[in-house]
Write a structure and sequence with these properties.
Largest sheet: 5 strands, parallel
Strand content: 5-15%
CATH superfamily of the largest domain: P-loop containing nucleotide triphosphate hydrolases
Number of strands: 16
Number of domains: 4
CATH architecture of the largest domain: 3-Layer(aba) Sandwich
Distance between the termini: 68 Å
Length: 508
């Protein structure tokens, strides 16, 4: 039976310790007390979880700031409530910035203390449950699917991934309740963010976790071939159909069918997919009999499906059917705390596979990894690490030169640094002489122009594709091009201009 998490009261005044202990125990909380940070740290190791620490900031030896920092490093799930003197709001703000969850200003009301402890305990239990769930899901994915099947696999604890982890928790709870129907899931995110890894977690954490996992990239097939791939075909259904073929909706029975790049599916085929989701039945190509299916569909795309619905290239009813649960994965540049740990995991695997030993990254390599913009997200990070593992012949740690990161940092926010003469340097090479607003404008303008150029280069001058990637309206993207004197046509190959793009080029 799990014990309740403890509340730890830390104060150098015995009267305060006894008062708080008495009140919190009347509320039903297991309470322990310590007169200083050293005693408090020892109590953490004495057995049982410490859910909340209530600590005074001013104490002999290690003060409340030091204890807060120690807790957030060693026990990041534990909540800390700090007690400050009257009128010390600046001190309270400092404590909150260091990781405290709440503060109480002397003299404080005991009801206020009780309310704060209850709230912090709820937060603690929710986060602990979420952390445990992510760990169990990771273990199950490795057991059921095999880590090698998903080379981008990494369980994130980054703040930006909190909503993703929350959705995984919700889906897991639904599965544990044994709901008759598990909803379709739509996973959104830029290319290379690891959408398939999240899809595998959804599968592994569901009632279908021991059933088949079947994945298909919709962008790899034309309409006819994808229809045959999904639904199968009868012998003689079309030229070359020499035998009966079972489709993925048959093969994945009792499991999960992952439809990657669903945004590339032809509209006519979307109608057939919608029927399968609604009726749980389909026909093979060339067939006359309905076949039933028991498959959960998880779809993913890097496209803005709402915009595609408006453009009539994606069915509104299919979008709403797929988006009962939407998991939006942030880009790698939004998950800064993940970059170095993820690179370390990839490096250990890549070096071992080549019979080499990975001795870690140098401090300058850590800085380079954290400062780069990662426009290609996790996929780019993996490629950089595998390339480094391939060419590295030394026996020491990996430095920034060994990583050979691209010089341009387009796709993320360029990092600026102050050099010895006080000048500001970075991707935009901003000069260090001038007022703050002037420098900020110049840096922003140069970054904006470089971003536009890089995007046009990636998409061959296709304004619509570049605007989608930038997540701005096409008209606004054209306005930005005009502002910087850029012509999309200059980045196209001969013969690539479509009527719509030609019109946009004239407008630009």
């Amino acid at each position: 039976m799990n014990m309740k998490p403890r509340v730890l009261v830390v104060d150098d005044e015995e009267t305060i310790r006894k008062l708080l202990k008495s009140r919190l125990e009347r509320e039903g909380f297991p309470v322990e007390v310590a007169s200083n940070a050293t005693e408090a740290q020892a109590l953490f190791a004495s057995g049982g979880d410490v859910g909340v620490v209530v600590t005074d900031l001013k104490m002999p030896g290690t003060d409340g700031f030091g204890l807060t920092a120690w807790c957030k490093t060693k026990y990041p799930v534990t909540r800390v409530i700090v007690i400050t003197g009257h009128g010390e709001k600046d001190v309270a703000v400092k404590a909150l910035r260091q990781g405290a969850s709440d503060y109480l200003e002397k003299p404080f009301d005991l009801d206020e203390l009780t309310h704060s402890v209850k709230r912090c305990l709820r937060e603690y239990e929710l986060e602990r449950e979420n952390t445990d769930l992510v760990g169990r899901l990771q273990a199950r994915v490795e057991r059921v699917e095999g880590k090698a099947e998903d080379k981008y696999w990494y369980v994130s604890k980054a703040t930006a991934m909190a909503k993703v982890n929350d959705w995984l928790t919700v889906l897991r709870r639904e599965a544990m309740r044994g709901d008759a129907e598990e909803p379709s899931v739509l996973i959104l995110g830029e290319s290379g963010t690891g959408k398939e890894g999240i899809a595998r977690m959804v599968h592994a954490g569901s009632r279908r976790g021991k059933g088949p996992w079947v994945a298909v990239n919709c962008a790899n097939f034309n309409e006819q071939l994808l229809e045959s791939e999904l639904f199968g075909h009868e012998k003689g259904a079309f030229t070359g159909a020499n035998t009966l073929k079972r489709g993925l909706f048959e093969i994945a029975k009792g499991g999960t069918l992952f439809l990657d790049e669903i945004g590339e599916m032809d509209v006519k085929l979307q109608a057939k997919l919608l029927r399968v989701l609604q009726e749980k039945a389909f026909r093979r190509v060339g067939g006359t009999a309905d076949l039933t299916t028991d498959v959960r569909v998880v779809a993913a795309t890097n496209r803005n499906l709402e915009e595609r619905v408006k453009a009539a290239t994606f069915r509104d009813d299919l979008y709403h059917r797929l988006s009962r649960v939407v998991v939006d994965i942030p880009s790698l540049r939004e998950r800064g705390e993940d970059i170095v740990p993820m690179a370390t995991q990839f490096a250990n695997r890549a070096f071992t596979a080549r019979g080499k030993t990975f001795a870690g990254f140098t401090a300058d390599a850590d800085g380079a990894l954290a400062g780069y913009g990662w426009p290609g997200n996790v996929r780019e990070l993996l490629n950089i690490i595998e390339r480094a593992a391939l060419v590295y012949q030394g026996a020491g740690t990996i430095g920034s030169k060994d990583l050979a990161l691209p010089a341009a940092r387009i796709g993320g926010t360029p990092s600026l640094s102050v050099v010895s003469n006080g000048a500001v340097s970075g991707a935009a090479d901003v000069p260090g002489v001038g007022g703050y607003m002037e420098l900020k404008k110049q840096w922003s303008d140069e970054f904006e122009k470089e971003y536009l150029i890089a995007s046009l280069q990636r998409h061959g001058g296709n304004v619509s594709a570049s605007a989608r990637e930038a997540k701005v309206d096409r008209s606004n993207f054209l306005r930005l091009l005009r502002r910087h004197g850029l012509k999309a046509q200059a980045y196209r190959k001969p013969g690539d201009t479509t009527p719509m793009e030609a019109e946009g080029e004239i407008a630009a």
